[in-house]
Amino acid sequence: MLQESHYFPSWAKHCDPSKYCCNNVRMTSRENFTFNVKPKLTMTQRRDLSEEVVHSAVHDIDFNFVQVLLNSNKYLFLEDPIDELSRYFWVSKQKFIQSIVVEQKGHGFLPFLNMNAFEAVRLDSRFLQISEIGVSRRPVVDVLETTSQQWNYNSRNGAILALFVHCIMNVHLRHGNHWAIEYLQDTKEIVLLLPATSGLDTASAVGTFFRNTDDNIRFRQITRRCEVLLPIIVAKVYNGIF
Fold first, then answer.
1. Which of 42-46, 122-126, 154-158, 198-202 is predicted least confidently?
2. Looking at 123, 152, 170, which one is the last position of a domain?
3. Tally of domains within the chain
4. pTM exceeding 0.90
């Protein structure tokens, strides 16, 4: 007769995954690097897309929904985020890299971006550095200290990833679609994965981009402890592209 196990791990006492998990995702194969949301071409596919449940739009949500999206291939892994930004801003990768400065700030690091990075595009408003923007819109990827006066990141690489997230959250082009629109054509939400190790065998789920019933694109950041933050409007769709 089997005896009932009395083993009950401490993390199982928590309903909130943020009490015991981190936001890392194992990338077991290079096949996982490929954006694999299939085009919705037929009327049936487009109808199914219109009826798609948007998990990110639920107010009180935890990290479990990320696994649902990963299992559905609704994720974007960026092997080279800086290359992605240089493509978005129509400058060479070398020039974009030369526009980045990472300074030591307190016990961590803070990135800054020179305006030369935007010479090929027009912005809707003046570019603000991470240190100049409101706390609620600052990237939390690899964040170390989080007061308005003392905000910094654990590492230089983490500061550069934060700069990427800052640009896709808070920079708006005058004539051009938002960066995320390209990836939301055939799905209503994606998880954004950024490299967590130099070997690219681990990624961090840093947030979700999603669209719902209005013309706004929103972004929900995910902290290292798997807390899903409130959605922030990052773009408006003016041309009915969806």
1. 198-202
2. 170
3. 2
4. no
